[in-house]
Write a structure and sequence with these properties.
The complex is a heterodimer. Chain A is mainly alpha-helical. Chain A has eleven helices and two strands. Chain A is globular. Chain B is mainly alpha-helical. The chains are: A mainly alpha, B mainly alpha. Chains A and B meet through helix 3, helix 4, helix 9 and helix 11 of A and helix 4, helix 5, helix 11 and helix 13 of B.
């Protein structure tokens, strides 16, 4: 039981970070970022290149992932999303753009990094063994702790910094924020960069545990969508809740339902649909947000 | 119908039923039949997605219904020995019935919520196909016999092409009729403002489910046809990427135009095929073009013809 909870917590922290980025982008720009999973994969490959291939410290790789993705995110917002949002007559058009970007990133990753599964050497060795009730490798604990640390840092940033406040104002009411003198374009760009950065950060963190390969992008996006739906789209606390809930469900499901075959995700999907039928806006979302 | 419309339809029929086969006969590019058949079937499924767009919902779940229709038809043919021609409408009705059950709760969702749920639905369909015993898991159902009429054609590809093309014409004619009917106008009112529509007496729940089940019907028959052509079906036959592509077809053609999905499918599918020679850069060029197209024409291909706000904004 302890084992299941610890696994769930560890998974949940990673998931929450991914969902945070997605929900931030959605709250600020009303864009469903299909390319989120691909950004995650890109972050993983950057860390892999720096840490495993160039032999630099892991922290450098992590920072490089975050910075690369932030730059990529900012460029995507400025040169792709902004003009399309301005000119299209339906806001759903951004979904086509996002899907196009997802394909594009997939293609770039394939050309630059190849299609092989890549892993990196362990960052710390050893396993925590508590009486055989809880077995957890130290690197997982470290990565989980780093993820939780990032979440806390992100919340503090959104809560207390000037930039964070501006972005929250934008998410609440775009026009009102603009009237108060918030530079909408600038903060949309920062928000998108921040969201992409979080995806890259998780990629860099998780490459040490699960490795990384090209095919992980799509499923990651779907999981992120699910978490956002559980918690409510565009709500930061909801994304964190959604991430931890999905992490727990997955962990419990894998240990309880394993005797019936690989139906964990089927069960999660089915219960999600029932949940959404009862509460369409998710746990903490605004109705029809 | 006006004279121009009849003329346009006649020319279109002439092109797809006479000119295209002649062209292929002359050039000897028999592989085009398969490409064009796929385009016709994919555009049928995309037409369904388009209809859900028409009531103001973003549908990324058509892959689920195509998969369900395909499996339904395949199981009826292999287990019960029913003729394919009977299973084709049955598969459509089956998926329509399923979509009513699923649609009743999820159609209450809007915007990105609906989009995300339908995306998840595609994944659910794949996992269900893997888990159920009757679908034979990951091995899928293979060596399904060819439909009776098709086998008598000297070249089954030609037979499938005719069937798919005629099916496409019927579907789009029906869609055109539907959109320009009373129900179509009511659907447009849903797209603009559901509360307002409801307040003046439109039964929005009923209308939404009807539109969604028609959409799924089209997905089901397209899936069943595909299975008949490939003579096999696997859980991965229709997956998330396909669902996203159906949606892209609609976007690309333009959401304001009934024939948008047809054009979008043709351009996307042929574009992808033509880029095959570029080898490993295929995906890169394709996605770059997609992004570029979006930057230049955010409202779809058909919006070039009608730049005025009159026809384009809906």
């Amino acid at each position: 039981m302890e084992q299941i909870l610890a696994n769930g917590l560890y998974l949940g922290a990673q998931y929450a970070l991914i969902a945070l980025g997605l929900t931030l982008i959605f709250a600020l720009m009303n864009v469903l970022n299909f390319a989120h999973g691909q950004m995650y994969v890109l972050g993983g490959f950057v860390t892999y290149t720096i840490y495993a291939q160039l032999g630099l410290p892991f922290v450098v790789g992590l920072a490089a992932s975050a910075i690369t993705l932030a730059v990529v995110g900012a460029l995507i917002e400025k040169y792709l999303f902004r003009p399309v949002i301005r000119r299209s007559s339906r806001e759903e058009s951004t979904m086509l753009l996002a899907a196009g970007i997802a394909f594009f990133l997939d293609a770039v990753i394939l050309l630059v990094f190849g299609e092989k599964q890549r892993g990196v050497p362990k960052i710390v060795n050893g396993v925590l063994n508590w009486d055989f009730r809880l077995i957890m490798p130290y690197d997982r604990i470290l990565i989980g702790a780093l993820a939780i640390l990032s979440i806390v840092a992100f919340i503090l940033f959104m809560q207390y910094s000037r930039t964070g406040r501006a972005m929250r104002a934008l998410a609440q009411d775009r026009v009102a924020a603009q009237l108060q003198g918030v530079d909408v374009d600038r903060y949309s760009m920062i928000g998108f960069a921040l969201g992409a950065m979080l995806a890259g950060l998780v990629g860099g963190l998780l490459v040490t545990i699960t490795g990384i390969n090209l095919g992980m992008g799509g499923p990651t996006s779907i999981k992120a969508f699910m978490m956002v739906m559980i918690g409510g789209a565009g709500v930061i606390s909801g994304a964190i809740a959604g991430g931890f809930i999905l992490g727990m469900l997955e962990s419990i499901g894998l240990s309880v339902l394993s005797q019936y075959g690989d139906i964990t995700y089927l069960a999660i999907f089915a219960s999600l649909m029932i949940f959404l039928a009862i509460r369409p806006q998710g746990l903490m979302g605004k109705p029809w947000g | 119908m006006t004279r121009n419309q009849i003329l346009g339809l006649a020319v279109f029929l002439l092109v797809i039923l006479v000119a295209v086969p002649l062209f292929i006969q002359v050039t000897g590019r028999w592989d085009f039949y398969y490409t064009l058949t796929s385009v016709a079937l994919l555009s049928i499924a995309s037409a369904g997605v388009w209809l859900t767009f028409y009531i103001g919902r973003i549908n990324i779940g058509q892959g689920a219904y195509a998969l369900a229709g395909g499996y339904f038809s395949a199981i009826l043919i292999t287990k019960l020995g029913i003729s394919f021609w009977l299973t084709l409408p049955l598969a459509g009705l089956f998926t329509a019935a399923v979509s009513v059950v699923i649609g009743l709760p999820i159609l209450r969702l809007r915007g990105v919520y609906f989009a995300m749920v339908t995306l998840v639905l595609t994944e659910v369909a794949r996992l269900t196909a893997l888990a159920l015993p009757v679908t034979n898991g990951a091995k899928g159902i293979t060596s399904i016999p060819l439909p009776s009429g098709i086998a008598s054609f000297s070249n089954p590809k030609l037979g499938f092409y005719y069937v798919a093309a005629i099916l496409m014409v019927i579907v789009f004619a029906a869609m055109y009729r539907l959109v320009n009917s009373r129900v179509g106008h009511l659907c447009r009112s849903l797209q603009q403002n559901e509360e307002l529509a409801s307040s003046i007496g439109v039964n929005i729940t009923y209308l939404r489910v009807i539109a969604y089940s028609i959409s799924s019907f089209l997905g089901g028959i397209a899936g069943a046809m595909f299975v008949a052509i490939s003579q096999s079906i696997y859980p991965s036959s229709f997956q998330v990427a396909d669902s996203v592509n159906f949606m892209l077809n609609c976007f690309l053609g333009g959401l304001g135009y009934v024939f948008g999905p047809m054009l979008g499918t043709l351009v996307l599918y042929f574009g992808w095929d033509l880029l095959f020679q570029t080898g490993k850069f295929q995906m890169l060029i394709y996605s770059s073009l997609l992004i570029l197209l979006m930057l230049v024409l955010p409202n779809g291909l058909l919006s070039i013809r009608m730049p005025s706000a009159k026809g384009g904004r809906k």
